[in-house]
Amino acid sequence: MKIAIPIAAGQLCAHFGHCEQFAIIEVDPATKRITGREDVIPPPHEPGVLPRWLAQRGANVIIAGGMGQRAQMLFAENKIAVVVGTAATNPEKIALDYLAGTLQTGDNTCDH
Question: Which of 10, 79, 91, 111 is deepest in the core (most CB within 10 A)?
């Protein structure tokens, strides 16, 4: 399983479309351990580009602070589960909390 997390300055970026990089964290759901991480620079943000781009990299889940409804639909069309409302913190902690079922989420920080 691969979890995509938008990051800026090493922490989760509040809005996925404005991040500096994506941490693509490979995890083993059975052992709940991280098996790899790759930080990649995304292409320019345009509607529909990031969901396809992350799907091509094998992402199964995207965890973000905020994301618009249209983007969430585009991720779903690319078979990527969306988790929003996550606070800015270390990507590895986010991935491990997600695997453990303890990831704290709040309001979607995006209103479009």
Answer: 91
Query: Domains plus CATH for the chain?
Result: 2-100 (3.30.420.130)
DSSP code of residue 16: G
Rg (CA), the chain: 12
- Number of H-type helices and E-type strands within the chain: 3, 6
Distance in angstroms (rounded) separating the CA atoms of residues 49 and 85: 22
* Predicted pLDDT of residue 112: 53
Q: Is 70 exposed, middle or buried (0-12, 13-18, 19+ CB in 10 A)?
A: exposed
pTM for the structure as a whole: 0.92
pLDDT at residue 11 greater than cutoff 70: yes
Burial class of residue 44 (count of CB atoms within 10 Å of its CB; 0-12, 13-18, 19+) = exposed
